Protein backbone atom coordinates (compact mmCIF):
# COMPACT_ATOMS: atom_id res chain seq x y z
CA UNK A 1 0.00 0.00 0.00
CA UNK A 2 1.35 3.42 -0.98
CA UNK A 3 0.86 6.72 0.82
CA UNK A 4 1.27 10.31 -0.27
CA UNK A 5 0.92 13.77 1.31
CA UNK A 6 -2.41 15.52 0.72
CA UNK A 7 -1.95 18.75 -1.24
CA UNK A 8 -3.82 21.88 -0.26
CA UNK A 9 -6.14 22.54 -3.20
CA UNK A 10 -8.75 25.19 -3.74
CA UNK A 11 -11.93 24.05 -5.47
CA UNK A 12 -10.95 26.03 -8.57
CA UNK A 13 -7.62 24.19 -8.71
CA UNK A 14 -9.32 20.83 -8.27
CA UNK A 15 -11.77 21.73 -11.04
CA UNK A 16 -8.97 22.76 -13.37
CA UNK A 17 -7.42 19.32 -12.98
CA UNK A 18 -10.80 17.66 -13.56
CA UNK A 19 -11.26 19.67 -16.76
CA UNK A 20 -8.16 18.02 -18.26
CA UNK A 21 -10.04 14.70 -18.32
CA UNK A 22 -13.03 15.95 -20.31
CA UNK A 23 -13.17 14.55 -23.83
CA UNK A 24 -12.29 11.30 -25.64
CA UNK A 25 -9.40 9.30 -24.23
CA UNK A 26 -8.18 5.81 -23.49
CA UNK A 27 -8.40 4.13 -20.11
CA UNK A 28 -6.69 0.97 -18.89
CA UNK A 29 -9.17 -1.24 -17.00
CA UNK A 30 -8.24 -2.11 -13.41
CA UNK A 31 -7.14 -5.59 -12.41
CA UNK A 32 -10.16 -5.82 -10.12
CA UNK A 33 -12.73 -6.04 -12.90
CA UNK A 34 -14.82 -8.69 -14.65
CA UNK A 35 -13.04 -8.36 -18.00
CA UNK A 36 -11.81 -11.74 -19.23
CA UNK A 37 -8.32 -12.46 -20.52
CA UNK A 38 -7.70 -15.95 -21.87
CA UNK A 39 -11.02 -17.05 -20.39
CA UNK A 40 -10.28 -15.84 -16.87
CA UNK A 41 -11.70 -12.76 -15.18
CA UNK A 42 -9.20 -10.13 -14.13
CA UNK A 43 -10.38 -10.06 -10.53
CA UNK A 44 -9.71 -13.80 -10.31
CA UNK A 45 -6.13 -13.22 -11.45
CA UNK A 46 -5.83 -10.34 -8.99
CA UNK A 47 -6.87 -12.64 -6.14
CA UNK A 48 -4.01 -14.93 -7.17
CA UNK A 49 -1.62 -12.01 -6.87
CA UNK A 50 -1.12 -11.80 -10.62
CA UNK A 51 -1.11 -8.69 -12.78
CA UNK A 52 -1.39 -8.92 -16.55
CA UNK A 53 -1.23 -6.41 -19.37
CA UNK A 54 -4.62 -4.89 -20.22
CA UNK A 55 -5.55 -3.21 -23.47
CA UNK A 56 -6.72 0.40 -23.11
CA UNK A 57 -10.35 1.15 -23.93
CA UNK A 58 -11.79 4.15 -25.71
CA UNK A 59 -13.96 6.24 -23.37
CA UNK A 60 -15.45 9.72 -23.35
CA UNK A 61 -15.81 11.94 -20.29
CA UNK A 62 -18.38 14.61 -21.10
CA UNK A 63 -18.63 16.05 -17.59
CA UNK A 64 -16.27 16.06 -14.61
CA UNK A 65 -17.34 18.54 -11.98
CA UNK A 66 -15.94 18.97 -8.50
CA UNK A 67 -18.98 19.65 -6.31
CA UNK A 68 -17.63 20.29 -2.85
CA UNK A 69 -15.09 19.26 -0.25
CA UNK A 70 -15.86 18.25 3.31
CA UNK A 71 -12.19 18.43 4.26
CA UNK A 72 -8.80 18.93 2.67
CA UNK A 73 -8.47 15.28 1.70
CA UNK A 74 -11.95 14.56 0.37
CA UNK A 75 -13.89 15.79 -2.67
CA UNK A 76 -17.39 15.13 -3.95
CA UNK A 77 -17.79 15.04 -7.72
CA UNK A 78 -20.21 14.45 -10.59
CA UNK A 79 -19.17 12.78 -13.83
CA UNK A 80 -20.92 11.82 -17.05
CA UNK A 81 -19.10 9.11 -18.97
CA UNK A 82 -19.64 6.55 -21.69
CA UNK A 83 -20.44 2.91 -20.83
CA UNK A 84 -17.40 0.87 -19.89
CA UNK A 85 -15.67 3.71 -18.05
CA UNK A 86 -14.22 2.83 -14.66
CA UNK A 87 -14.93 5.83 -12.46
CA UNK A 88 -12.63 4.61 -9.70
CA UNK A 89 -9.75 4.61 -12.20
CA UNK A 90 -10.74 8.09 -13.38
CA UNK A 91 -10.60 9.39 -9.81
CA UNK A 92 -7.30 7.67 -9.09
CA UNK A 93 -5.85 9.28 -12.22
CA UNK A 94 -7.23 12.65 -11.11
CA UNK A 95 -5.39 12.26 -7.80
CA UNK A 96 -2.13 11.51 -9.62
CA UNK A 97 -2.47 14.70 -11.67
CA UNK A 98 -3.12 16.53 -8.42
CA UNK A 99 0.25 15.29 -7.19
CA UNK A 100 -1.00 12.73 -4.72
CA UNK A 101 -2.80 9.39 -4.44
CA UNK A 102 -6.50 8.75 -4.02
CA UNK A 103 -9.29 6.23 -4.05
CA UNK A 104 -13.05 6.16 -4.36
CA UNK A 105 -14.99 5.87 -1.09
CA UNK A 106 -18.55 5.93 -2.47
CA UNK A 107 -20.23 5.87 -5.86
CA UNK A 108 -23.87 6.46 -6.78
CA UNK A 109 -25.15 6.03 -10.33
CA UNK A 110 -27.83 8.65 -10.94
CA UNK A 111 -28.43 8.09 -14.64
CA UNK A 112 -27.97 5.16 -17.00
CA UNK A 113 -29.42 5.50 -20.47
CA UNK A 114 -33.06 6.44 -20.06
CA UNK A 115 -33.12 5.44 -16.37
CA UNK A 116 -32.80 8.25 -13.85
CA UNK A 117 -32.81 8.19 -10.07
CA UNK A 118 -35.09 11.22 -10.04
CA UNK A 119 -37.78 9.25 -11.87
CA UNK A 120 -37.57 6.24 -9.57
CA UNK A 121 -40.41 5.18 -7.28
CA UNK A 122 -39.98 4.90 -3.55
CA UNK A 123 -41.33 1.70 -1.99
CA UNK A 124 -44.29 3.60 -0.52
CA UNK A 125 -45.20 5.36 -3.78
CA UNK A 126 -44.84 2.08 -5.69
CA UNK A 127 -47.18 0.27 -3.32
CA UNK A 128 -49.67 3.12 -3.53
CA UNK A 129 -49.63 3.10 -7.34
CA UNK A 130 -50.10 -0.67 -7.48
CA UNK A 131 -52.97 -0.47 -4.99
CA UNK A 132 -54.68 2.04 -7.29
CA UNK A 133 -54.16 -0.21 -10.29
CA UNK A 134 -51.84 2.28 -11.95
CA UNK A 135 -49.19 1.15 -14.41
CA UNK A 136 -45.67 1.93 -13.24
CA UNK A 137 -43.71 0.02 -15.88
CA UNK A 138 -42.03 1.88 -18.70
CA UNK A 139 -42.32 0.49 -22.22
CA UNK A 140 -39.18 -1.48 -23.20
CA UNK A 141 -38.45 0.85 -26.12
CA UNK A 142 -38.61 3.85 -23.78
CA UNK A 143 -35.74 2.36 -21.78
CA UNK A 144 -33.54 1.74 -24.83
CA UNK A 145 -34.30 4.88 -26.83
CA UNK A 146 -30.63 5.89 -26.77
CA UNK A 147 -29.93 3.15 -29.35
CA UNK A 148 -30.61 3.52 -33.10
CA UNK A 149 -33.73 1.82 -34.48
CA UNK A 150 -34.00 -0.60 -37.39
CA UNK A 151 -37.21 -2.18 -38.69
CA UNK A 152 -36.99 -5.87 -39.61
CA UNK A 153 -39.29 -8.05 -41.71
CA UNK A 154 -41.14 -11.11 -40.41
CA UNK A 155 -38.49 -13.58 -41.58
CA UNK A 156 -35.78 -11.63 -39.77
CA UNK A 157 -37.94 -11.48 -36.63
CA UNK A 158 -38.11 -15.29 -36.66
CA UNK A 159 -34.33 -15.56 -37.10
CA UNK A 160 -33.68 -13.11 -34.27
CA UNK A 161 -36.03 -14.97 -31.94
CA UNK A 162 -34.04 -18.13 -32.73
CA UNK A 163 -30.88 -16.36 -31.59
CA UNK A 164 -29.34 -16.11 -35.05
CA UNK A 165 -27.06 -13.29 -36.16
CA UNK A 166 -28.65 -11.37 -39.02
CA UNK A 167 -27.45 -9.09 -41.80
CA UNK A 168 -28.96 -5.61 -41.60
CA UNK A 169 -28.55 -2.28 -43.34
CA UNK A 170 -27.51 -0.52 -40.14
CA UNK A 171 -24.55 1.54 -38.88
CA UNK A 172 -21.87 -0.84 -37.61
CA UNK A 173 -20.42 2.00 -35.56
CA UNK A 174 -23.37 1.72 -33.19
CA UNK A 175 -22.82 -0.33 -30.03
CA UNK A 176 -26.39 -1.64 -29.97
CA UNK A 177 -29.53 -1.53 -32.12
CA UNK A 178 -33.24 -1.68 -31.34
CA UNK A 179 -34.83 -4.20 -33.72
CA UNK A 180 -38.52 -3.40 -34.29
CA UNK A 181 -41.10 -5.47 -36.11
CA UNK A 182 -43.56 -4.11 -38.69
CA UNK A 183 -45.93 -3.06 -35.89
CA UNK A 184 -43.22 -0.97 -34.25
CA UNK A 185 -42.83 -3.34 -31.30
CA UNK A 186 -39.37 -3.98 -29.86
CA UNK A 187 -38.24 -7.49 -30.77
CA UNK A 188 -34.67 -7.47 -29.50
CA UNK A 189 -31.57 -5.48 -28.74
CA UNK A 190 -28.78 -6.39 -31.14
CA UNK A 191 -25.01 -5.98 -30.98
CA UNK A 192 -22.53 -6.06 -33.88
CA UNK A 193 -20.79 -9.34 -34.60
CA UNK A 194 -18.50 -9.10 -37.60
CA UNK A 195 -20.65 -7.93 -40.50
CA UNK A 196 -23.85 -9.11 -38.82
CA UNK A 197 -25.98 -8.27 -35.79
CA UNK A 198 -26.27 -10.74 -32.91
CA UNK A 199 -29.29 -10.75 -30.55
CA UNK A 200 -28.14 -9.61 -27.12
CA UNK A 201 -31.58 -9.46 -25.48
CA UNK A 202 -34.70 -10.97 -27.05
CA UNK A 203 -38.06 -9.97 -25.66
CA UNK A 204 -40.56 -12.70 -24.89
CA UNK A 205 -43.70 -12.97 -26.97
CA UNK A 206 -46.79 -12.15 -24.94
CA UNK A 207 -49.35 -14.88 -25.32
CA UNK A 208 -52.71 -15.73 -23.79
CA UNK A 209 -54.29 -19.12 -23.33
CA UNK A 210 -58.01 -19.81 -23.58
CA UNK A 211 -59.91 -22.74 -22.18
CA UNK A 212 -61.59 -24.82 -24.83
Give a verbal description of the structure.
This protein is α+β, with helices and mostly antiparallel strands and 212 residues long. The protein has 2 domains: 98 residues, Pseudouridine synthase, CATH 3.30.2350.10; 64 residues, PUA domain (Archaeosine Trna-guanine Transglycosylase, Chain: A, domain 4, Roll). 22% of the residues lie in helices and 27% in strands. It contains 6 helices and 11 strands. Strands 8-9-10-11 form a 4-stranded mixed β-sheet. A 3-stranded antiparallel β-sheet has the order 1-4-5. A hairpin with a 2-residue loop joins strand 6 and strand 7. The C terminus is likely disordered.
Task: Give a concise summary.
With 212 residues, the protein is α+β, with helices and mostly antiparallel strands. It has 2 domains: 11-108, Pseudouridine synthase (2-Layer Sandwich); 139-202, PUA domain (Archaeosine Trna-guanine Transglycosylase, Chain: A, domain 4, Roll), CATH 2.30.130.10. The protein contains 6 helices and 11 strands.
- β-sheet strand percentage: 25-35%
CATH-level-4 superfamily name of the largest domain = Pseudouridine synthase
CATH architecture of the largest domain: 2-Layer Sandwich
Distance between the termini: 71 Å
The spatial strand order of the largest sheet comes to: 8-9-10-11
Order of helices and strands: HEEEHEEHEEHHEHEEE
Count of all domains: 2
- What is the arithmetic mean of pLDDT? 88
- Biggest pleated sheet: 4 strands, mixed
Number of helices: 6
CA gyration radius, whole angstroms:
23 Å
> Helical residue percent?
10-25%
Amino acid sequence: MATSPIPSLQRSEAQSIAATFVGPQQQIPPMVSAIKIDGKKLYELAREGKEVERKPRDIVVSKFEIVESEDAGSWDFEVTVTPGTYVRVLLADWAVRAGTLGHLTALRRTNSGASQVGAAYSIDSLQEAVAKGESVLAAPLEMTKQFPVVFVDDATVVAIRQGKAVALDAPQASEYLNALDSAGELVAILRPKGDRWQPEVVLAIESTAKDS
